[in-house]
Amino acid sequence: MNDPSIPGIPQLIEIARSVRIDIVQAIHHAKGGHFGGPLSAVELLVALYFRELNIDPVHPQWEDRDRFILSKGHSAIALYAVLAERGYFPVEELMTFDAIDSRMQGHPDMKQTPGVDMSSGSLGQGLSAGIGMALGARVLGKSFRTYVMIGDGESQEGQIWEAAFIASRYQLDNLVAILDYNKVQQFGWQYPEPLLPIDHPEEKFAAFGWHVIEIDGHDFNAILNAFDQAKMVKGKPTIIIAHTVKGKGVSFAEGKYQWHAKVPNDEELTLALAELVRREG
Amino acid sequence: MAQELSQRVVFGETLVELASQDSRVVCLDGDLATSTRTDMLFKAHPDRFFMMGIAEQNMFGVAAGMASVGLIPFVSTFACFTAKRALDQIRIVIAQPGLNVKFIGAYSGILTGKTGKTHQSVEDLTVFRAMPNVVSIAPIDGVEVRQAMHAMVEYDGPVYLRLTRDPMPVIMGDSYQFQIGKAVTLREGKDITLIGTGEQTQRCLDAANLLAAEGISAFVLHVPTLKPLDVEAIVNAAAATGLVVTAEDHSILGGLGGAVAEVLGEEYPVPMKRIGLRDTFGESASNAPLLEKYGLTARHVAAAAKTLLEKRST
After folding, report:
1. Cα(B56)–Cα(A44) distance, integer angstroms
2. Which residues of B touch A172 (CB under 8 A)?
3. Interior CA angle at A114 toward A113 and A118, to 5°?
4. What are the chain B neighbours of A120 within 8 Å (beta carbons)?
5. Quick one: B155 and B189 in the same domain?
6. Is residue B177 part of a domain?
7. A9-277 domain in CATH 3.40.50.970?
8. Model confidence over A167-218: pLDDT tens digits?
9. Domains of chain A by residue range
10. Is the bond preceding residue B228 a cis peptide, omega within 30 degrees?
11. Residue A214 CB: number of other CB atoms within 10 A?
């Protein structure tokens, strides 16, 4: 990196570590919230807010900013932690998560939290709103881009596929969907054999006319390359299918549906923080 | 005979007018353009018309995204789909953040062109009255449709506009000024108060004529805005006669009748009767037999008024 204000990969890794610590502490403090889904999305969100999005934390309503929608709204605490680390509001405010009168609501509220571009929470709805923003940019002659993160369980909602059809039909190359493909939903299918929340999303989105990029969603190089590649695609929307691990970074929660919305107790918090602060290598 | 206008035709014409005046106005259509008459906008401004296909949930979400970046989207489909098929989308991304989306309930009530109960809408006002942040408007005629649409564009926030299909007489004069949240006295009277919303207010006016022929003087109040409700006008209208009949092409549960009963129950209790769908769905038929079977004619309104008057005199 020539520009010292642009964080390189080692710095992004450190930011992701801080974000995970923020998330775990906030959930423990609030005694509520979701655990696995926020942790799987951390690298994707950090890459967006620290490298990809054209934004200004001092002016969250700047009208030419790139837009981001967290359609899997139950991972709100991850978005709040990234926004706080990016400077939209103090990191200490994360400790008000889920409390009365807090700007950190259980699901994203665009009228409460600086930096949140669209309310979400009832699953399946964010991609449609992203289409509206992308079409809006076209009508208004603006060059901002729109990014929407969807979940794999969420992709069972029919509205996701209504949106997939329309985004392709309008050739929205200013729209990027990111699938946080963490392979685990709240309970899902476990009998007679375990099934994924969605099989072969790459085939399904390709069949709907999308450009598909498949990556490791915890690898910053891969994530940043995917964003760059998406900008080269013309005439169709892009989906980045990011293979992730639910509960990533907290070993006892990784890949476990039981940690979809479990709150760590004091002992689990200590264990989780010990893992998260430990330096690799 | 008085001039007649279809609300849907005025809607299409006014949409073109608004889009021509204001570059932020766009329309999303759920593949009903020739019915709802958004085809007029498509012909005049094809770049401001967005075909969203037969996929209402996505359509309302797209509208929210458009509103969030500064456009003023009119979302057009039948009332039955607006109020039910896409209801959670309206709740989450339009009503809760208070985004500036205008959503149309075309072909409302039971007079829907022989499509029957699947395509009639008798509970949309109940739904949107109960939803915070949503303004609900049901105009009496084409003149009021046009004015209401201009007011909707000036107002920043979610608005539901309930429209009808077939031509009806024009009631409002050229000098009429629609205001969101204001009810309108159409006729002064001292014996009985008739309160209507949407086109059903026209049948209240006809009922007032029937009653006048029998020497009964009816006060007629038109309530085009179901929310915010003009509480003062409703209380004053009730106080003018001490008896109230409400009338709507909608369920009596939670619509105008429910709203007036709530207001008067708290503020000015008087005997009342509600004309409307009595906890039933409709069916396929042409307008006259539907109005007759479901008790929505001017004669039904007048009969309810006379029942209240007879009770008071005994």
Report:
1. 30
2. none
3. 70
4. 92-93
5. no
6. no
7. yes
8. 999 999 999 999 999 999 999 999 899 999 999 999 999 999 999 999 999 9
9. 9-277
10. yes
11. 16
Q: Does position B59 have pLDDT exceeding 50, yes or no? A: yes
Cα separations (Å) of B120 from A139, B52, B105, B106, B141?
34, 22, 10, 10, 19
Query: Pick from A187, A200, A182: which is nearest to A41 by CA?
Result: A182
pLDDT interval class at A280 (50, 70, 90) = low
Regarding an ipTM greater than 0.85, the answer is: yes
Domain boundary among B169, B195, B230: B169
Q: Does B66 touch chain A (CB under 8 A)?
A: yes
CATH code for the domain in which residue B191 is found? 3.40.50.920
The verdict on B198 and B295 lying in the same domain is yes
Q: Which of B60, B70, B98 sits opposite A63 (nearest CB)?
A: B70
The tens digit of pLDDT for each residue in B87-128 reads 999 999 999 999 999 999 999 999 999 999 999 999 999 999
Select from B144, B169, B194 the last residue of a domain.
Answer: B169
Cα separation values, B110 from B29, B38, B86, B114, B274, Å: 22, 21, 20, 9, 17
A132–B61 C-beta distance less than 8 A: yes
| Within a domain: B84 | yes
HSE of A204 in the Cβ direction (CA atoms, 13 Å)?
15
Range of the structural domain that residue B19 is part of:
4-169
Across the interface, whether the CB atoms of A122 and B91 are under 8 A apart is answered yes
Quote the number of domains for chain B.
2
DSSP type of residue A48: I
| Reported pTM | 0.97
Catalytic residue check, B56: yes
